[in-house]
Amino acid sequence: MKRLFWFLGIVTFVLFISGCSEDGSSNGDSNSDWSPEQSIEIVAPSGAGGGWDTTARMAAKVLDEEGIIEQDIGVVNKTGGGGAVGWNYIASKTGSPYNLFVTSPPIIDVPLNGNSEYDHEDFTPIANVIADYGAFVVKEDAKWDTLPELFDDMSDDPTKVTVIGSSSPGSMDHLKFIRFAEAYGVDGEEVKYVSEQDGGEMAALLNGSVDVFSTSVAQAVEQVKAGEAKVLAITAEERLEGDVVEDFETGMEQGIDESYVNWRGFMGPPDLDDDALAYYEDAFKQLTESDEWDEIKAQNGWEDLYMDSEEFKEFLDEEKAETEELLEDMDLSE
Predict the structure, then answer these.
(1) Which of 32, 130, 292, 309 is a plausible cystine mate for 302, CB 3.0–4.6 Å?
(2) Cα distance between residue 308 and residue 285, in whole Å
């Protein structure tokens, strides 16, 4: 719960700062004299259809359709290494104002596990935009209807159930499942976890290759609507609002005292120019204030968590310290 209280403190701080600076920031007026003169590339360091990919494509759509950025914006998938392949690519674009990437907890987790030479300190934080939540998904005809039922079945032998996720071992999808399992009393170190980073996770679940998909709420919605899958629990503290997602029970409702928030934002390459940083920081602020973005958040079960560049950097530094401690406690650090 220490981690949860710290996160809530950060959210309160961000909301306070945002309120205090409201008079100083206008809708659409950037302090930067720079603006892009060629097309912009946003890298999603994962396969199509994942959380990074969806966030990048939805953000690009709003930035374009709302006229926030007038240049073309393309989204490119760079898969592999739990994000490391994409980060290597962006690291080679030092100073370029035309190469951005979407990011989330793996930028902290993966380097701490020794699987990337780059971490958040090697890039330029621009803005965080949303808070997302996890979901533990099974086939519609699975024998479990709640998370405790699953964990009861795993209690004598955690390896009898195979869990799949989009992130690498020791990273986001793996860690959040382990945290909930251990909160219930299941030995997290014995959990059988499979990493799939090319977008085939849901297919593997539906064809019976794996038993549980540890993913985001947004990734579960369509298959739940189609009657192909069901959500055992989500990682939020309270039920989410919106069609379909409002029916997903939280782990806390089922007696598991645990939660997990997946923040998601955007970063630039090393040594991004201050004027370009100010331009993009303002652009993402406008995005989060648009009605179209509000609709997208509702459809995906996302919540607002805007942080400007300075706030985002401080958040990332704190997140790294907290995650390092968590990995050491769980004996998952390098």
Answers:
(1) 130
(2) 8
252-304 pLDDT, tens digit per residue, is 999 999 999 899 999 999 999 999 999 999 999 999 999 999 999 988 889 99
Q: What is the pLDDT of residues 138-194, one digit of tens each?
A: 999 999 999 999 999 999 999 999 999 988 888 889 989 999 999 999 998 899 999
Q: Are 229 and 205 in contact (CB under 8 A)?
A: yes
Global pTM exceeds 0.85: no
Spatial separation of the C-alpha atoms in residues 96 and 85, rounded to whole Å: 18
Q: How far is CA 222 from CA 40, 104, 249, in A?
A: 30, 22, 17
The alpha carbon torsion through 212, 134, 241, 287 (nearest 10 deg) reads: -130
What domains are defined for the chain? 2-132+262-329 (3.40.190.150), 133-254 (3.40.190.10)
Rounded distance between C-alpha atoms, residue 20 and residue 22, angstroms = 6
